[in-house]
């Protein structure tokens, strides 16, 4: 990641993942509205439906395949291979038995990718029922993946200048908050209703800050390590957070009014009509 491309690529992956989660949530809401009555009758007296941490694709064939977990595992494996093998960074020790300092970052990045790959593996285990894991276990493993990402970034700053440290400090704070949100979703059913907004928002915030760090450190005009530049990073992050929040809010409002509000109104109208017919039939029987 010690280059502009090394920050733009993971940043793009996080933003694309956030876009997919946003689309998946909209599609999931449409499916829920379409079969709400059937699901309510099916789950009456049983445990409520728990949305997995990932979203399925639409279509007769793709909906039967865990596409997102498979893609997650493939990307993690390819990322580890690129980190360690592309530039021959596999040597962890030199001829004197000392750690090769230039390769440690690659191993840290590989460990980070491996935990996200582990999350995909757990998703597959739960999908194919290979092991009777408890509900929301996939959320717990996703939290673990983000926690180790923040953990590795936290110890990634030794010997770096203040500008670099401030950039990555903001990044690992966002990552730790994301890990905490996924962990709270495991133990709190009330937070689950906010996950549709928080998941893509926090992922976009993280991906956008990868872009910010890349252009600050390795852009065409890298920033100088000056007190004013270091202080401005806090303002820049606030702008990132506000912008992503407004963008997500606008998209959620637009999707709600276009894809969710009308089906809900139709469902309520049909429910009122059916209840009215039941009342009329009861009155006729009494007469």
Protein model, in words:
- With 287 residues, this protein is mostly helical.
- The protein contains 9 helices and no strands.
- Helix 1 (4-34) packs antiparallel against helix 8 (195-218) and helix 6 (162-187) packs antiparallel against helix 8.
- It starts with a helix and ends with a helix.
- The model is unreliable at 39-46 (pLDDT under 50).
The helical percent reads over 70%
Give the overall average pLDDT: 86
Distance between the termini: 79 Å
Count the helices. How many? 9
**Count of extended strands:** 0
Q: Give the overall silhouette.
A: globular
Uncertain runs are 39-46
User: What is the element string, with H for helices and E for strands?
Assistant: HHHHHHHHH
- Judged by helices, strands and strand pairing, the structural class is mainly alpha
Largest sheet: none
Membrane topology: Multi-pass membrane protein
Main location: membrane
Keywords: Membrane, Transmembrane, Transmembrane helix
InterPro entries: DUF716, TMEM45
In a few lines, what is going on in this structure?
This protein is mainly alpha-helical and 287 residues long. The chain has helices at residues 4-34, 36-42, 67-85, 101-127, 137-154, 162-187, 189-192, 195-218, 227-286.
Give the topology.
Blueprint: H1 4-34, H2 36-42, H3 67-85, H4 101-127, H5 137-154, H6 162-187, H7 189-192, H8 195-218, H9 227-286
Helix pairs in contact: 1-8, 1-9, 3-4, 4-5, 5-6, 6-8, 6-9, 8-9
Features:
287 residues; mainly alpha; 75% helix; 0% strand; globular
